[in-house]
Amino acid sequence: MRTVLTSTFTSPLVAAATAALLGSVMAAQGRQSVPVSIQPPAAVDVVLFAAMNAGKVLTTTDANGKGSFDVADLLNLGKLDVVKDECADKVRVLLVRHGVGTPDSQDCRKRRLGAYWPGHDPDLNVRLQGGGMSSGAKTGLIAGGAGAALVAVKAAQSSSSSTTSTNTGGGNTGGGGSSGTNPMTFNGTYTGFMTATTNTCAFPPTTTTQGVLSVDSSGRGTWVQNVGSVTLNFSIQLNVTGSAAASFNAATSQTVGTQAFSVNDAVTISGGQLNSTETLNSSSCTVIWVGPASKN
């Protein structure tokens, strides 16, 4: 009888211990550590901005720019924007889900470097050309080994492009211009980051943006822009102002939630960088988003 009782009592304990052990092994197998490399080498925080984890520090790289994080909590987020957040006293790398805002500060400057796809890209290698507070850095490169995320934000081809274009509004004054440049050379997809300089609509203070410019040889065409979760469709007339410069000013209307907005977008393009001032007006509020976007 004693043997039977001992066996009956210990079997559940063994089963429970075995299940716990297997569960731990399975959990360990389910975790995937993603290596991080920052160039030039620097100790920086890699911070996630998603709806449920806004501001979560995934890892802090060491002085050699090396670190890693567990990708498990990121697998359902899709592609994330990789953003350099450059402040007077520190530089951070932000992983931002499309449409999620990040804190804004007058002392910091944000710049989109590319994209990272959790579960698909095995490495997160971020190149911050020039590092620190260098204003001359133009190329952001996220690249790893085979299969890693690879996004190049194109650099300007001439020294004149080191100066950011001032938005002059462009106007619908026709394509071509005196330079003889074909307006179609500006066609493509532009991605970047926008900051609200005026915001009485309680919209996110910062947001990602992606736009597709498509014009014919006369400069007539469309500008379809995603600002956060809002898609804006413009009919435009691109005005070529130089061999690598152009501008346009376009208007449309858009309903966001229950509010009807009139939208104006004043855009200048120089050396592969597009600068946009997007103004949304409704009967009760106004938001103005300003920011650069680079041609992919």
Estimate percent helicity. under 10%
Query: What is the total tally of β strands?
Result: 19
Number of domains: 2
Described by the principal axes of the CA atoms, the overall outline is globular
* Residue-averaged pLDDT: 75
Task: Tell me the distance between the termini.
Answer: 77 Å
Radius of gyration: 24 Å
Quote the CATH topology of the largest domain. Porin
Biggest sheet descriptor: 9 strands, antiparallel
CATH hierarchy: architecture of the largest domain: Beta Barrel
**CATH class wording of the largest domain:** Mainly Beta
Q: List unreliable stretches of 5+ residues.
A: 1-29, 130-178
Query: Helical stretch count?
Result: 1
Encode the helix/strand succession as letters. Answer: HEEEEEEEEEEEEEEEEEEE
State which percent range the strand residues make up: over 45%
The protein's oligomeric status is: single chain
Q: If strands are numbered along the chain, what order do they take across the biggest sheet?
A: 14-13-12-11-19-18-17-16-15
- Which structural class fits the helix and strand makeup? mainly beta
Can you walk through the features of this model?
- With 296 residues, this protein is mainly β.
- It has 2 domains: 33-152, no CATH class; 159-295, Porin (Beta Barrel).
- The protein contains 1 helix and 19 strands.
- It has one helix at 2-30; strands at 33-39, 45-49, 56-60, 66-70, 80-87, 91-97, 108-116, 124-128, 140-142, 151-152, 188-199, 206-215, 220-227, 230-237, 239-242, 245-256, 259-270, 273-281, 286-295.
- The strands form 3 sheets. Strands 14-13-12-11-19-18-17-16-15 form a 9-stranded antiparallel beta sheet, with no helix packed on it.
- A hairpin with a 6-residue loop joins β11 and β12.
- The longest helix has 29 residues, at 2-30.
- 34% of the residues are buried.
- Residues 1-29 and 130-178 have low confidence and may be disordered.
